[in-house]
Amino acid sequence: MRLPARRLLPATALTAASALLTGCFTGTQQATDDSGPGGKRIRVAMLQPPRSGLSPLSDDAFKLSRWSTAETLVKLDREGDARPALATEWKQSGRTWTFSLRDGVTFHDGTKLTPEAVVRALTEAATASPKPRILDGVDLTAKADGEKVTVTTATEDPLVPQRLSSPQLAILAAKAYRGKTVNPVGAGTGPFELTKVTGTSSATLDRYDGYWGGKAESPGIDVKFVPDGTARAAALRSGEADIVEAIPVSQAAVLDQDLVTEVPMPRTNTLYLNTGKGAFKDPAIRAAARAAIDAESIVKGVYEGRADVAKGLLGPALPWAAELRTPVERAEPGDPAGKTVTIGTYTDRSEMPEAAAALQQQLQKAGFKVKLDVREYANIESDALAGRFDAFVLSRATVLDSGDPAAYLYSDFASQGTFNLSHLKDPEVDKALKKATDTPVGDARRKAIAEAEAAVLATDAAVPMLHERVIQGDAAGVVNAAHDPRERELVTADTYVK
């Protein structure tokens, strides 16, 4: 089937969008440093502004990770296996894991990485309210043991190293934890030091010459938060930004294709249905919504073919999921006639309002009466978590935290999950999720995860529609920018601008 024509950005829109960035990078591009090939600072246009003052205990942690300023004990390789970072090795003994720390690491304030510093950071995360989602359902304690750190969980947990790779468990200097909030400015261990944050508009990072892994190629990073997707695309076209994340699919064709990289990612666009109250408390009405949704038309009409139709919650970035997936027995659709529902979504990803509008039409055709509530994510998340919508359209990373989807499934669908937008409380789902969480890493765990996915899908609490792709823009002079499906890396020590 022929795809719809791509929408081009008119010159007047380009001028207006570009104006949003005018002045934000002024002068920074001319900075030079003769000590390496990267004599210019890197100008980055980011999608979402900070939600929690760049606290690593929130989703802001992934910004700190993408700027290479905050680091974790462990990192993940492409396959999702744990590899050394601030910790060089580890071993398990029942419920306890022992980690050896890397020598010669200093925080950006000059203090040394010590077992006590690691324990402080992990304890702050483990006792936070709410906890970082990687610790959903996990009771974790950390103690200094000579020059090493021990991490103990209430029950034996095969995923402790992978959990500790989450940017939300970054290790920061003691100064970061003074007061009621966590302040990452000048407190990381990475190749770039966060030196200034200007509210929700910009951030500045300078090269940290004492980095344990060697001096970064670029002298620094200048970040501008640009929620408007048209403005981000315009910044790349006009040369005002060097790296642009999350280019909207509607703007991808406008750009020089040599500057655009598209990477399949473990991110699913899902319609979460509120099972706790309202119309979708009835399984038959949830089934009617699921039956009414035509995901293929949304992929073609909204995403212009730059996405994959979902067969389940886990997409092509996890090929084993399709191999293990089995048919799911669901409720028969009921009659939605006269049922009024409100769907919430957000403007930060430009495709989301369009996807919600398409869903509105599809559900209305099936007999629902549908209202939309669309806002910036920072202004709508609390209402979504509180269950104030009948349904919510969300673009959700499925292995963002640990490289393992069990944590995402637990967070989103367990009775005690902290991101349970569906307000699902189902004993069979909880049982399947616990089995997936407790099973050792390997084939048996993957099978248990597939079974947990099937248990969730059987409830129709969530209707997976499509799996997204990363669309990133890199200016012609950019060298070694990261293209990371997990959205943990963007600018690394090896990244520079010619």
Number of helices: 14
The third-level CATH topology of the largest domain is: Dipeptide-binding Protein, domain 3
What is the chains' assembly state?
A: single chain
Question: What is the makeup of the main sheet?
Answer: 11 strands, mixed
| Number of domain modules | 3
Based on secondary structure, the structural category is: alpha+beta
CATH architecture of the largest domain: Roll
Give the overall shape, derived from the CA principal axes. Answer: globular
Distance between the first and last residues' Cα: 42 Å
Mean pLDDT across the residues is 91
CATH class of the largest domain: Alpha Beta
- Rg is 23 Å
Helix fraction, binned, reads: 25-40%
CATH homologous superfamily identity of the largest domain: Dipeptide-binding Protein, Domain 3
Strand content: 15-25%
Number of strands: 19
Question: Low-confidence segments, ≥5 residues, pLDDT <50?
Answer: 1-20, 27-31
Describe this structure in words.
- This protein has 498 residues and is an alpha+beta fold.
- It folds into three domains: 11-68 and 190-242 and 475-497, D-Maltodextrin-Binding Protein, domain 2; 74-177, Dipeptide-binding Protein, domain 1 (Alpha-Beta Complex), CATH 3.90.76.10; 265-469, Dipeptide-binding Protein, domain 3 (Roll), CATH 3.10.105.10.
- The protein has 14 helices and 19 strands.
- The strands form four sheets. Strands 1, 8, 9, 10, 11, 12, 13, 14, 15, 16 and 17 form an eleven-stranded mixed β-sheet that branches.
- Helix 12 packs antiparallel against helix 13 (427-438).
- The chain is globular and about 65 Å long.
- Residues 1-20 and 27-31 have low confidence and may be disordered.
- Residues 83-418 form the Solute-binding protein family domain.
- Residues 1-31 form the signal peptide.
